[in-house]
Amino acid sequence: MENDLDPLNLMPKPTPNRPLLGLTILIVEDSRYSCEAMRFMALRSGARLRRADSIQSAKPHLRVYMPSAIIVDVGLPDGSGLDLIRELSSARPRVPALIGTSGDEFHHSATLKSGADVFISKPYESLAAFQQTLLDLFPPSEPFGLRLVSNDMVHPDPTALRDDLYHAKSLIEHDPNKPMCDYLRQFLTGVAKSVGDAHLERAAQNEPIEDLGLIIDQKIREVRIF
Hints:
alpha/beta
């Protein structure tokens, strides 16, 4: 049986099968579907994953411990993820790996200017790309070693997609104001890109808010739960 512990300090030691063993990743992300994709990739890579669905819910995590890496979605329900990235980038000690993410490539430049080390675009699909992105952010002296490159693609549980759609529907039912409508459109666009649904993406960007509820109802009925 393979020993994953370093005998000198009893810390988990990365292996080719689990190259991120010993890392703790905090993802600040409001989409359950995207979080499920990230959870799968972290699990396969050996990393621990913690999730916060807003800026405020991330604060307790950050007060309690220092993650090895933080992944921040640009569009969050209680503010811009860019503001959180600026705060985390200027903090001392700084998190070793700070990553910005969005379903919209338009945010790429702003994310890096805010202090992120790298930007990753949704959807999260490639296990190999995820692992390489993290490994590239740590110095060569870190004992990560070789890894087995996996061509696995991520397919999250459709239950998480349905939860995201119900969340969007609940926002509409609460008669959202303009800032909330802007967030709703951004949230739905990100979900649509994560699942490759061009129709939902166009609707999220162009349809009147009052019509989006019917489209979301249709999408909920289309989700197949096995």
